[in-house]
Write a structure and sequence with these properties.
Layout (H helix, E strand, L loop, with lengths): L14 H16 L13 H19 L8 H20 L4 H10 L5 H24 L7 H24 L2 H45 L12 H6 L16 H21 L15 H8 L1 H13 L19 H16 L4 H10 L4 H25 L5 H29 L3 H32 L10
Helix pairs in contact: 1-2, 3-4, 3-15, 3-16, 4-5, 4-16, 5-14, 5-15, 6-9, 6-11, 6-12, 6-14, 7-13, 7-16, 9-10, 9-11, 9-14, 12-13, 13-14
Length: 460
């Protein structure tokens, strides 16, 4: 019989901020020309200015934006390994951690860090999909099929909004949504933890009854009561498939390919694509708007299929199919606005409607695989530099994700706590909220003191 163990609170959320502050103070103190004590200078404004100067120093040290083999680069690799290990357990990409690590620790500019992050998330998602496809899969292909078209559409809408919204608004929206999502995710984690504890106590009481000879005739046999006692502590709500769902996988690939062809011909807003096109001209916006009827057509076709989604909410009643494309549209839009993948955003939404943690993690990683490969291919087609280094970081995340998956799955089997998956998602979201919101605020402050325009902008 499996036993429940309690875990100490993880303090990993304090590691990066403390390290950042120490590096900042050390860097500035080595070049200081002032004779007054450093503690006399630690006002809020001076701390922000010192942090901005330190970031500027890191960017200048990189010079031509090429990632050089140095102590900050190696440290960034270690942090990315840890971040990928934690993210893989929850089935999310981890871009909300990779981008801050590459910009803060390695000193890369945001554009280069974003391109690296796309490859790193792809490496981690490949590891997740390979791990989840072995044996009995927990991936809910119906949820993925319903969500993917609207998620890809939402990403395109979010990217447009990202160019239109000012930096301060994006930072505020990001902070509000991630704080709310972190709170809801942690609350679901606590709920699952209590449910697992109650199930454990029920199982233990049942075994005590068996030991006391409560069962009649003193036999264990094949009675219904004994069968219930033999059920695993961590229930699996995934759907057992007698055959691999090739038709659904082909449909997902078809959705991916259609959107990829649009991205391929459209290019970016500067007219960089496989065909010559006026920057933000009629052709650009025509191809962009074509994604709306395409997503609606795919979603309508999937919704009118005769097969029923076997997902159930916490009340054991069927979930309305329309919830999933709407959630995916919102998650994709927010992911496009914030510049991160949709896995970290759709995971708490799936938990909210009652999808089990194991199915949520497996399904999210499967969906992240399609969105991350789309981003990686776009960066390659647009002439991304230092692809070799990005592939090295991708391999690091691939290995780290496998390590994280093996460790977490062993912990779940050992302790009977599927809620570990939920808590890993909460940790990643809390760290992302702390890092990206903090340095987004620094960028807003830098724009403010430099007198830059801080209003709404045209999308082109």
């Amino acid at each position: 019989m499996k036993r429940i163990h309690s875990f100490p609170r993880w303090n990993i959320s304090l590691t990066l901020p403390i390290l950042i502050i120490l590096i900042s103070l050390q860097s500035q103190s080595s070049h200081a020309t002032q004779t007054q004590p450093i503690l006399d200078d630690l006002t809020i404004e001076s701390f922000i200015n010192k942090t901005l100067q330190w970031r500027s120093h890191l960017r200048k040290s990189q010079g031509d934006h090429r990632l050089k083999l140095s102590a900050p680069t190696l440290l960034a690799g270690v942090f990315c390994f840890v971040a990928a290990s934690i993210s893989s357990a929850g089935g999310i990409g981890g871009g909300g951690l990779f981008i801050p690590i590459l910009t803060i620790v390695a000193g890369l500019d945001l554009k280069t860090a974003s391109s690296f992050s796309a490859f790193m998330v792809t490496g981690g998602s490949i590891a997740n999909v390979m791990y989840n496809l072995r044996g009995k899969t927990l991936i809910d292909y119906d949820i993925a099929l319903l969500s993917e078209p609207c998620m890809l559409l939402g990403v395109s809408i979010g990217v447009v909004c990202n160019h239109f919204f000012p930096e301060w608004l994006i930072t505020i929206l990001f902070a509000i949504f991630l704080v709310w999502s972190t709170f809801k995710t942690c609350r679901h984690g606590v709920w699952h933890w209590k449910m697992e504890s109650d199930r454990y106590h029920e199982t233990r009481n049942g075994y005590e009854k068996l030991e006391n000879g409560v069962i009649k005739n003193g036999t264990c046999g094949e009675s219904g009561e004994n069968k219930s006692l033999e059920e695993p502590l961590v229930g699996v709500e995934g759907k057992e498939k007698s055959r691999f769902p090739w038709k659904k996988l082909v449909a997902l690939l078809m959705v991916w390919f259609c959107f990829f062809v649009i991205y391929l011909f459209r290019g970016n807003r500067y007219g960089q694509g496989i065909i010559q096109m006026e920057a933000c001209g009629v052709g650009y916006w025509t191809l962009t708007l074509c994604q709306i009827p395409l997503a609606i057509a795919f979603t309508a076709w999937i919704l009118h299929r005769k097969e029923v989604i076997a997902c159930h909410g916490s009340n054991k009643q069927g979930v309305n199919k329309l919830i999933f494309p709407l959630m995916a549209l919102m998650a994709g839009g927010l992911g496009g606005v914030f510049g991160i993948g949709g896995g970290m955003l759709i995971s708490p939404l799936l938990l909210q409607v009652g999808v089990s943690p194991e199915v949520t993690a497996a399904t999210c990683s499967f969906m992240v695989f399609f969105s991350s490969t789309m981003s990686a291919f776009q960066y390659l087609l647009l002439g991304m530099e230092h692809t070799g280094t990005a592939l090295i970081f991708s391999v690091i995340c691939f290995v780290a994700s496998l390590v994280g998956l093996v460790v977490v799955q062993k912990a779940i089997k050992e302790f009977g706590r599927a809620s570990l998956i939920v808590f890993s998602v909460g940790i990643v979201m809390a760290l992302s909220a702390l890092l990206m919101t903090s340095f987004g605020a620094f960028d807003v402050w830098e724009d403010y003191i430099s007198g830059s325009y801080m209003g709404f902008k045209l999308p082109c």
